[in-house]
Amino acid sequence: MGNGxxxxxxxxxxxxxLTQAELGRDLYSPSYISLLETGRREPTADVIEELARRLxxxxxxxxxxxQPVSVSDxxxxxxxxxxxxxxxxxxxxxxxxxxxxAAQIALxxxxxxxxxxxxxxxxxxxxxxxxxxxxxxxxxxxxxxxMAAESAGLGVRARQMLAAVCHGQGQLTVAVGHAQxxxxxCAELPKGSTLIIGxxxxxxxxxxxxxxxDEAWEYCQAMNEQxxxxxxxxxxxxxAWVIGNVAFMRHDYTExxxxxxxxxxxxxxxxxxxxxxxxxxxxxxxxxxxxxxEPETLSSIERAELALSIVGGNKTDQLExxxxxxxxxxxTGDIVAAVQKLREIHAEKDALAKHVAGEVALLLxxxxxxxxxxxxxxxxxxEAQKEFSAAGASDRVQQAxxxxxxxxxxxxxxxxAASSGTQAPRSATA
Length: 430
Fold this sequence. Notes:
The protein has 23 helices and no strands. By secondary structure, the chain is mostly helical.
């Protein structure tokens, strides 16, 4: 059977916003669907008939995919296979190279569906490497292609990734806009689709980081309504994780802990160590933001550090986990160690999104104030204000301004006291 069968099967599945598990539900395992898509397993006539029914295609349409393999087809399939193998090994640079080769072969063969999918995979690899601008440019090209307008599934995928990449660059207002459009397009997709969940997650994340927590919470409820008893365990875990994040940010600690405990039960490092690392990083971060300094918070930090040491991660991942450790040091009163770690992170802030760089500068300013270095603290607090403003995080701008104002007022009181010959009382540290 022609190797084009697997690629076309994958393209049709993705256009409908289905995972391998959703396509194979109750009959075929995700691994079997994967074998079909990679050309490592030949479908029987019964399988073709059933897949056609699930994809709402005529069986003969699937049979037509099984044409003799041309030289370009063979080259494309091989490049695609190498790309997926490199992805599985987390060699995202190599995966991007092979995906780009496969996309170019598909383009020359005028196979636009294959070109779109392999270009999307290349974009995913760029994002994994932290090459966000390059990723953004590529996804924009995919979004501008007529296929993205013709297929709701492809449009959602492109908008969702654009939202994520803009979020990663600190362009929160733009991220919200792309995510809102992705959610709007989801109206054409079946309930419970992983694409709907992904679009809602992107919107919730951008809204929450922008300080629009009530809106984020409303979308959390909408996302929860997409789940049912048949939802996959890992997907349910990811949903619980996101809802818990927003609950913590809204200072609803009871709900936050409930959902994160549920996420910890559903997600497994054995299934996806990278996802496990990101969950523990996020859980530790929101707990610390809520001022929850307890053994479970420290355990989350340690699990995130351990998982990251296994998967490697890019520079951004490493700095974000280091920042969480720095926050723990600050909140537990180890100011000297906190300042040292924050200076190290700040030296590489260009690898961070604007709003995250703002958080680093804000905490460094607070730590320096606590260490009695008010003049230097002001430099970083004013920097934080600028970073938050550029990112569109208005609530964080106000926090930085308040911290600056507090130091300036304390300085004025000290000057007034000195001029009157009395000693000013020491201000409490942040």
